[in-house]
Amino acid sequence: MTQKFGFVAIVGRPNVGKSTLLNHILGFKLSITSRKPQTTRHRVLGIWTEDQVQIAFVDTPGMHTDQPKAMNRMMNQTAEQALSGVDAVVMLTDGRIWNELDERVYQKVKRSTCPTYWVINKVDKLEQKGQLYPHVQSIVADHTFDEVFPVSALKNLNLEPLLSTLRSHMPEGPFLYDEDQITDRSERFLAAEIVREQIMRQLGDEVPYETTVEIESFDHSGER
């Protein structure tokens, strides 16, 4: 069987569950999460390999438009750059919500010439599941997507149909990464991100949002 490889960008406004989706697809906690918007600051590549298909998922910072701070502008630029050179785009939204930020993200996404999939996350939180269908119909009436997938990334619900579709649309080509490789990021980077996640979770109200973590030493011995 011929190998298939492709890049898939995961985009959306802040706090819609992009990193949670990637973590559950990989079965590994790669991207950190918290309730604070734009916890993801850097482009993180998550590599999923199964049988003869390898997909490199690009987890991006939440697109936060009209933010004057340099860090926000940098993260917006990182997210927009992820739309270039990919083989598919996954746009995440939150449940029945489609707000102005979602619309602005869509306006950037629709410029892409590759297949675009609308993934409606957090459907497990909908009080009435019957409300989802009219919401979808109202959006697709004037927005173009190749397919729509209602999912719950946190509960791991309905992710397989999404993965199956992505697998089938990846172009033929050799794997770019080793089959056991999960990311292109270093252990030092991942360690710093885990520390930053706990700072955001435990001390989010006490420390500046722009807090960064720098690893001064890294010990592989496993001894404390």
CATH-defined fold name of the largest domain? Rossmann fold
Total number of strands: 6
Secondary structure: helix percent: 25-40%
Give me the CATH superfamily of the largest domain: P-loop containing nucleotide triphosphate hydrolases
Structural class: alpha/beta
Radius of gyration: 18 Å
For the record, the CATH class of the largest domain is Alpha Beta
The strands making up the biggest β-sheet line up spatially as 2-3-1-4-5-6
Please give the count of helices: 6
Question: Can you describe this structure?
Answer:
- The radius of gyration is 18 Å and the shape is globular.
- The termini are far apart.
- The chain has two domains: 4-184, P-loop containing nucleotide triphosphate hydrolases (Rossmann fold), CATH 3.40.50; 186-224, no CATH class.
- The model has no long low-confidence stretch (mean pLDDT 81).
- The chain has helices spanning 18-26, 70-81, 100-109, 132-140, 159-169, 187-203, and strands at residues 4-11, 44-50, 53-59, 88-94, 116-121, 147-150.
- Helix content is 30%, strand content 17%.
- A six-stranded mixed β-sheet has the order 2-3-1-4-5-6, sandwiched between helices.
- It is built from six helices and six strands; from the N terminus they run βαββαβαβαβαα.
- The longest helix is centred in the last third of the chain and has 17 residues, at 187-203.
- Helix 3 (100-109) links the parallel strand 4 and strand 5.
- With 224 residues, it is an alpha/beta fold.
